User: Fold these one by one.
Assistant:
Number 1:
Amino acid sequence: MLVSSLLLGQPHNYREALLHNAPTPQPAYITRAQDYIAEHCGQPITINDIAAHAAISVRSLHADFQHYHGTTPMAYLKLVRLQRVREELLRARASNTQTSVTQVALDWGFSHFGHFSNAYRRQFNELPSQTLRG
């Protein structure tokens, strides 16, 4: 306490750095949750599945995910799925493969196409059909 008071009480080049808390690295269970989401995002998974794999309670997972990523685990899952859809649409366009947006969306767990299309547009500033067509 005395050292802190001395360091913060005197003007010097590092005063501002000492006043701000350094960001803490995310806990291992958050990394496990992210890895689980990345590996299983094409499957119907729940928050309970993610929490069980990460070995943490649903409540703690939700709170800590919010703290470290500014979003919920399920919103993160949705973002990962949207990114996978985009990657697949871009691959199909590049290789001139016949596919449909509907089929790709279904493959990645989206069943309500209106919600999917709106979320995709918000995330990537274009419709999924525009991504596919180029």
Number 2:
Amino acid sequence: MKRNMEESVYHVNRLKGKIKIDGDWEKEVWKNVPALEITNYMGDKPKFLPTTFAKLLYDEKNIYGIFQVQDRYVQCLIQETNGHVSGDSCVEFFFSPDNSNPLFYFNLEINCGGVPLLQFVTVPRKEYLFLKEREISKVEIAHSLPKKVFPEIEEDTVWTIEFKLPLKILEKYAAITHPKPGVKWNANFYKTASTTSNPHYLTWSKVNNSIPDFHLPQFFGTLVFK
């Protein structure tokens, strides 16, 4: 498998104690967790480049994540699970949890109003399944902005998304190489807002492609569980 020449690596700490999914970036459980930054852009440089950070934690049963976005031109219209949330101000976590099939991946996309999309992909844009709404409802999501944001917020705005993703809901679709010290997954993190007045396509692990496309798992970076 072709790998990114400038490979991005993120070390995922194990959760100690309990966590409340409330979207609070400043709470104690996240304070000593390293953050990654989503800095690469695809296509034309947008008029405003949001600053986006993400953090992950794990335990035997779940992956926990939080995003903080320092943004402008924020909009959220999609209200339906598995709708076109990436058109809104949106953060995304793509990950390959099966070490025997590193190009198979799940994509979890959550708009700034907390509405998710979750797919399992075996061939990008050709062979994929949407997880069922009852399965996706088991993903706990907290969002700092209202569920609907319109008209667009043009001034500086900071928003957060936090999630708890149960590994059990993924097992119907793929074998899971369960997180434990030394286990590695391939993954990428994205920030987008394709139908706002400031369209942009930002990536954590650099994607070398002439047009914006997040569905290129050969450019995923690496998660290393600690």
